[in-house]
């Protein structure tokens, strides 16, 4: 026993690797983690009721704890590595949600900011270490760069996934197809000889919008062309259970462990002579995807109309409170009314933090029910949505107490309060 321990401690760090071998197991659990990041972040933010910023702070602390555990290991351990990925997926999602929902930053801008940030991380990593390969994670600085890149890819993937939905008006299920197609193209290029490091990071980034839209599709209300109606909690539990089962399996079977010098060997499919042509293929695929998104944005759909026409025309409709809610489920209206009443209470107490939390919770509940409500009564939905915009603008942008009270109490009256 003593001899074995001494032997293990004498193993050069260059023979140890802090990430799993990239196999089908890696990508399976990565997609599971990205889906959890979307659904669990939504559920936690709503249930904690402390607001996006406070929730993000909590998960940042949790991320620091699990990352410390991961950094303290001398080699890859599934029980340390994958919980870190799960937590960083939730944390990255919350960072994007803060920019979008709390600060009102447009998704195209947050996507651009995170893309630049990721380029900066990769550039600094390369300048210092001369490698971006995950199989070279054999020092603490390289691992630090790796986890920073992972965090930014989750934030970027969340922003681009949501931007795709906003830009095109596609349902979450339809939106899954675009990153899936791009992943298939990059994978084919890798098998034909493309640079394996480039292919890995492209696929890693693309799995985030894939998982985010998959999570939205599973959790969205069960109506045509929207979702399966599982809800964020059930979706999170299903995928967390799948992650746990996979981690336990990998812990015992070691199916994803890199041993000896396997990490340093020449990639099986790499063909340097084909790199440039295959980069051109991936560039063409990127241009084609951009053209598709541009075309979809130009087609008539809710978001495009809102951007071109300004406020929803239905916002100016003259509907009574009874007309506004007549065709909506009573339990949904009661939930909205209770949340708006919470805003009114916070305004009375001059509690801005509680007001922000109530607004976030209401917006989340309203957005979750949008497909169902808009289908039941599009005119009434547009009328209330216009009043919602007045509330969001007064609370998050103008921050004028009188405007806040007027907007909140107008909405409360419309909801029968």
Tell me about this structure.
- The protein has helices spanning 2-10, 24-48, 52-72, 78-102, 107-129, 140-168, 172-175, 177-192, 196-219, 231-253, 275-298, 302-309, 321-325, 330-348, 352-376, 378-398, 401-414.
- The chain contains 17 helices and no strands.
- Residues 1-15, 260-266 and 303-317 have low confidence and may be disordered.
**What is the β-strand count?**
0
Number of helices: 17
Poorly predicted segments:
1-15, 260-266, 303-317
The mean pLDDT is 81
Termini Cα gap: 72 Å
Radius of gyration: 24 Å
Oligomer: single chain
Spatial shape: globular
Q: What kind of sheet is the major sheet? A: none
Strand content: under 5%
Give the topology string: H per helix, E per strand.
HHHHHHHHHHHHHHHHH
Fraction of helical residues: over 70%
Q: What structural category arises from helix and sheet content?
A: mainly alpha
Q: Topology of this structure?
A:
Elements (H helix, E strand, L loop, with lengths): L1 H9 L13 H25 L3 H21 L5 H25 L4 H23 L10 H29 L3 H4 L1 H16 L3 H24 L11 H23 L21 H24 L3 H8 L11 H5 L4 H19 L3 H25 L1 H21 L2 H14 L3
Helix pairs in contact: 2-4, 2-9, 2-10, 3-4, 4-6, 5-6, 6-9, 8-9, 8-11, 9-10, 14-15, 14-17, 15-16, 16-17
Summarize the structure.
With 417 residues, the protein is mostly helical. The chain is 76% helix and 0% strand.
List keywords for this structure.
mainly alpha; Membrane-anchored protein; transmembrane; transmembrane helix; 417 residues
């Amino acid at each position: 026993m003593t001899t074995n321990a001494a032997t293990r401690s004498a193993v050069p760090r260059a023979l140890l690797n802090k990430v799993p071998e990239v196999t089908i197991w890696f990508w399976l659990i990565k997609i599971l983690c990205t889906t959890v990041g979307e659904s669990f972040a939504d559920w936690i933010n709503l249930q904690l009721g402390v607001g996006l910023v406070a929730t993000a702070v909590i998960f940042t602390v949790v991320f620091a704890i699990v990352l410390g555990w991961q950094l303290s290991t001398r080699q890859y351990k599934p029980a340390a590595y994958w919980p870190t990925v799960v937590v960083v997926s939730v944390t990255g999602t919350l960072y994007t949600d803060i920019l979008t929902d709390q600060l009102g930053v447009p998704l195209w801008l947050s996507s651009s900011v995170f893309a630049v940030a990721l380029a900066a991380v990769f550039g600094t990593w390369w300048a210092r270490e001369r490698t971006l390969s995950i199989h070279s994670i054999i020092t603490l600085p390289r691992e630090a760069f790796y986890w920073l890149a992972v965090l930014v890819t989750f934030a970027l993937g969340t922003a681009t996934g949501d931007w795709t939905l906003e830009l095109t008006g596609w349902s979450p299920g339809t939106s899954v197809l675009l990153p899936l197609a791009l992943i298939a193209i990059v994978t084919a290029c890798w098998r034909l000889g493309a640079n394996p490091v480039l292919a890995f990071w492209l696929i890693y980034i693309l799995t985030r919008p894939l998982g985010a839209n998959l999570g939205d599709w599973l959790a969205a209300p069960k109506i045509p062309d929207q979702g399966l109606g599982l809800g964020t909690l059930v979706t999170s539990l299903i995928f967390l259970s799948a992650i746990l089962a996979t981690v336990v399996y990998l812990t015992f079977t070691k199916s994803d462990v890199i041993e000896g010098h396997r990490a340093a060997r020449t990639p099986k499919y790499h063909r340097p002579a084909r790199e440039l042509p295959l980069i051109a293929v991936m560039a063409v695929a990127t241009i084609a995807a951009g053209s598709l998104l541009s075309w979809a944005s130009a087609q008539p759909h809710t978001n495009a109309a809102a951007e071109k026409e300004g406020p929803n025309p239905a916002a100016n409709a003259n509907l009574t409170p009874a007309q506004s809610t007549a065709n909506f489920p009573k339990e949904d209206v009661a939930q909205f009314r209770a949340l708006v009443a919470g805003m009114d209470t916070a305004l009375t107490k001059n509690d801005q933090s509680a007001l922000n939390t109530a607004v976030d919770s209401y917006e989340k509940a309203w957005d979750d029910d949008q497909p169902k409500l808009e289908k039941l009564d599009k005119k009434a939905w547009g009328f209330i949505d216009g009043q919602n915009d007045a509330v969001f603008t007064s609370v998050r942008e103008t921050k004028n107490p009188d405007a806040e009270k007027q907007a909140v109490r107008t909405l409360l009256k419309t909801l029968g309060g």
